[in-house]
Amino acid sequence: MSKKILSLLLALLFVVASLSGCTAKDSSSDKDAANGEPSEINFDEEPYTINFLYLVAMEGTDQQKVNDAVNELTLKELNMKVNMIPMTFGTYMSQLPLMLSSGEDLDIFPAMANQFATYIESKYIVNCDDYAAYTKDIYEVLGEDAAAGYVGDFLVGFSNVKERSYPAGLVCRKDIFEELGYKVEDFAADNQYGVDFDKITELFAAVKAKYPDMICLDGTSTMGIQTESYGDNMGNVFGYLEGYGQTTTVTNWFESDEFRMFAEINREWFTSGYVSTDIAVNSDSGEIKVKAGNCFSYITNVKPNTDIEKLAQTGYEVVVVPLSKPMKHTNAVTADLLVVANASKDKVKAFQFLNWSYKSKEFNDLINWGVEGLDWVENEDGLACYPEGVDAFNVGYHNDFGFIYPNQMAGHPWVGNPTNIWDIYAEYNANTAKSQAFGFMFNSVPVETEIAQLNSVYEQYYKDIAFGVIDVDQGLADFNKALYDAGLQKVIDEKQRQLDEWLANQK
């Protein structure tokens, strides 16, 4: 179905629903969902318990206090209890597959894009299309981004509210950068990247001359690895829309002039001694490397307040040199989605809770910053900050994971950000150019065997080439031959076929 037609139907559904005043008659809600009858909250029935899995930086000592505060809030506003299931990324990766395969009680959880096709095929998640009557507030908050989570006609889930672009940037120690006489605007160029890469090479040479023992660039990324900064990979690197996604022809980026150029730049940096000799096998982030004190810069995804975030993560004031222009593609919206599990015992209530979570200021503050007055307070500027006597080392609960929660912009920004940071985010998102394939998600199931083989090839070659550790000509020749031998053309053809079909349905 065309997404434009679907949007009109949803709008009509909401109008009809609001005029009808219908309510769900019982807590068994699949029948009501199929009929599209939005239900009001029934405060006379036994509270339903939502099993809510969410990601945390670490489980703090005040976790139970946060759980209690969430339950007090949801009982008052939804007549629901919440079983909070906090998990770090590592625990999530190991435990979630077991929970899903065993049918463990679960209502809502964050799903990562590389698993969408598997979750649909295994019937682990619910098609959100079937419950559109219960997600009006989500559609209001997300706008067009609410419809970005489709795989075919299956609406996987809903995106978090965050920045909608993954531009690359060079994060540099401000003290050394300014000591050497540089300003960010010195690196601007009138080209498709907006940056003069030769000027960055000059910067590294100056750093090396002044501080011979310092590593100019380290970390886990560089331009050739930032595939989502320069084009649209539509879910994986095997088949690419070049030129910031302003084409509808799927190609092999590893054969492009652009990827070769990036590899050659990195080869020069590596052979000149500007880059860590073990950068291709390093697993420590750039933040960790800079914090250790002997690294000048690293490359990562950046956004309007990167300098504020990286100060806390590195211990140094930083400046950010943009290495690409902003671009909005589907994965910038759908890299992770909040989904409703098929194991939910009351899917309507799960969707009611999820819908509420996008509007609740208190809920988003609770899961991000903890209990107000205990873990954080509001300062005179309206920003969240630590209470007196509390800091990052003794706070009982603090995540700063707003990017993976329903709607960080409903809650408080953290101190150090501009007071209008959410307005800055909104303007940034509104002015970001969109890929021609925005809204399309590739279903990898038809070529999953080839993708498994391609992933093995990719892991074998890409870091050595992207970081300039090996000869570019020979490395690219060997890499691309191995990719095609592993089935790259079949994947490109399937991705092109699905994209063409999706584009035709948008008309």
Explain briefly what this protein structure is.
The chain has 507 residues and is of the alpha/beta class. 42% of the residues lie in helices and 12% in strands. It folds into two domains: 1-161 and 333-443, Periplasmic binding protein-like II (D-Maltodextrin-Binding Protein, domain 2), CATH 3.40.190; 168-331, Periplasmic binding protein-like II (D-Maltodextrin-Binding Protein, domain 2).
Question: Describe it for me?
Answer:
This protein is 42% helix and 12% strand. The chain is α/β, with parallel strands linked by helices. The protein folds into 2 domains: 1-161 and 333-443, D-Maltodextrin-Binding Protein, domain 2 (3-Layer(aba) Sandwich); 168-331, 3-Layer(aba) Sandwich (D-Maltodextrin-Binding Protein, domain 2). The longest helix has 19 residues, at 448-466. The radius of gyration is 24 Å and the shape is globular.
List keywords for this structure.
single chain; alpha/beta; D-Maltodextrin-Binding Protein, domain 2; 2 domains; four-stranded mixed beta sheet; three-stranded antiparallel beta sheet; 20 helices; disordered N terminus
Write the layout of secondary structure elements.
Blueprint: H1 3-20, H2 30-35, E1 48-55, H3 63-78, E2 80-87, H4 89-102, E3 108-112, H5 116-121, H6 136-142, E4 150-151, E5 154-155, E6 158-159, E7 168-173, H7 174-179, H8 197-210, E8 215-217, H9 227-230, H10 242-245, H11 257-271, H12 286-291, E9 295-301, H13 306-314, E10 318-322, E11 327-328, H14 330-334, E12 336-340, H15 347-357, H16 361-369, E13 377-378, E14 384-385, H17 421-430, E15 433-434, H18 448-466, H19 472-485, H20 488-505
Parallel strand pairs: 1-2, 8-9, 11-15
Antiparallel strand pairs: 3-12, 4-5, 6-12, 7-9, 7-10, 13-14
